[in-house]
Amino acid sequence: MSSGYSIGIDIGGTTTKIGIFSRDGRLRFKAEIPTDKTESGIRILPNAARTAMSIMSAGKISLEDVVGAGIGVPGPVRNDGTVNRCVNLGWGVIDIEGTMAKLMHMPVKAANDANLAALGEAWMGAGRDSESLVMITLGTGVGGGIIEGQKILKGCEGAAGEIGHIIVNPGESEACSCGRHGCLEQYVSAKGIVRLAKKRMQCSDSILSGEQRLSAKKIYDAARLGDSLAKDVTDEAADYLGRAIANISDILNPEAVILGGGVSRAGEDLRAGVQKSFEKYVFHACKNTKILLAYLSNDAGIYGGARLALENAKSLA
What we know:
38% of the residues lie in helices and 22% in strands. The protein is an alpha/beta fold. Strands 3-2-1-4-7 form a five-stranded mixed beta sheet. The protein has a five-stranded mixed beta sheet with strand order 10-9-8-11-12, with helices on both faces. The chain starts with a strand and ends with a helix. 48% of the residues are buried.
């Protein structure tokens, strides 16, 4: 019987993170490597597997000590362990589980990266006391994951939790990256918040005017200083996000909604605004859903991967 180590792998568009965890959820070893997207990402999985095996060797952990690995990728993962297109990685159809199992010589389960982040927060993060939660990742785009009974809700095609593409403004003239109009991502992602600010910039004396490298962080910093344009933008983003969370809560009635990703570093300024909007729109029977800030930061995905591996080991036992 193995001692129960599990491996979490989180493949992002820029970096790939690998962590080895003990059964009780402690991160024992961690590494981060660049994600090599050249030649349609053909080296991404081999590089991740090689790094994981190197960490094991350095930590004197044998294959018999590891129950398996869980891997997150930026795309929908089907029930058979394949992903159909990860645009950010240059992939078409890839059998992630089969490929990584051969490379690592152990059982491997794959899931969407936002789903794994949600699972990680449910296991050892802000949602560890919650049986049901929704996580929303606010980064360059907007992702989401749904946890029910401490398990990922994947949907029939592995695409459940695409919260960033909930339509919140059908009258929007600009197109989202998905090709539709008025997606939540257009208003609450890092790019979306900058977009809202730029639309107001021409007729404003904001301290942000003339800023060459505008960012969501700079906008939240300016709002904190009382800048009216920045405050209008952050209020608008909070209103859209709170409204979306209210609709999600009306359908799923989760114990908690966790806000993660780079934009969530705005902290309580973000959370409080979203909470106010949520309370304005939510159905009264669902008002007790807690809105929390993520705890595990950029490591949530590897925590979720390790947890997924442990769950898979139980199912195989």
